[in-house]
Specification:
single chain; about 250 residues; alpha/beta; two-stranded parallel ribbon; globular; acyltransferase activity
Length: about 250
């Protein structure tokens, strides 16, 4: 798999993406050259998970939504094959045992000394704004002790406006921020306040690097509201009597 990853990056897809999108990068020296690291970034487009590994000097293993690994038919098989060979792992967003398994997968990546990419928002932003982070990243940080490298991915929110099937060819940038050390929490009892504090500190750095407007709500909640408001409302059937013409008497 590692061989395919480098072949994809340096020979097959990488050069094409560099020509088409002319990506720029800042702060590469902030990314540790070895050892575990959590790369936490904003999320506006599915290609975020392509541009960060493309520009990072070391492999980045991403936790991707599990839907990419459970598709059926030929398309599902191809998608699953691509994501596995591209260093991506399934992540369950439903909570409970599924989310715990995703957490363990992430910790395994870090314990092996690799860099793990994660989007604290949990899903793509619906409008280019930065939304409240999920505390799963704080659990990863506190259990692994790995440093967090905040990342701002710039311009991908403009790649594919609603209704457009093919992404626009425009420049995209990635900014790696200074590593964040949370060793001050080592040995302390973990509670929801600590998890929220760590998560918010990471989100603040992402906001500072990206320049995005911050919204203190979960992106998934906003998406649900947008979908609900977009659905056509059912109209009540007309009252039987009201449907009669003025000169018509109701039947006995």
């Amino acid at each position: 798999m590692r061989v395919f990853y480098w072949f994809l990056k340096r020979v097959l897809a990488g050069p094409i993406l560099r020509i088409l999108f002319r990506p720029w990068v800042r702060g590469l020296d902030n990314l540790p050259s070895e050892g575990p690291a959590i790369i936490a970034g904003n999320h506006n487009h599915f290609m975020d998970s392509i541009f960060v590994p493309l520009l990072a000097p070391r492999p980045v293993v991403y936790l991707a939504k599990k839907d990419y690994f459970t598709g059926r038919g030929i398309k599902g098989a191809v998608t699953r094959w691509f994501f596995k060979l591209n260093n991506q792992l399934p992540m369950d967003r439903g909570g409970g045992s599924g989310s715990q398994a995703s957490l363990e997968s992430g910790l395994k990546v870090l314990r092996e000394g690799n860099s793990l990419g994660i989007y604290p928002e949990g899903t793509r932003s619906p409008d280019g704004k930065l939304y409240r982070g999920r505390t799963g990243i704080a659990r990863l940080v506190l259990e692994s002790g790995a440093p967090v490298v905040p990342v701002a991915i710039i311009g991908t929110d403009k790649l594919q406006p609603a209704g457009r099937l093919v992404p626009k060819l425009r420049r995209v940038g990635v900014v790696f921020g200074a590593p964040m050390d949370f060793s001050k929490y080592s040995g302390l009892p973990v509670d929801r306040f600590m998890l929220r504090s760590v998560t918010d500190e990471i989100m603040y750095e992402i906001m500072r690097l990206s320049g995005q407007e911050y919204v203190d709500s979960y992106a998934s909640t906003v998406k649900t509201k947008l979908l609900t408001s977009a659905k056509p409302k059912k109209t009540d059937p007309p009252n039987r009597d009201e449907s009669k013409s003025d000169g018509e008497s109701p039947s006995n």
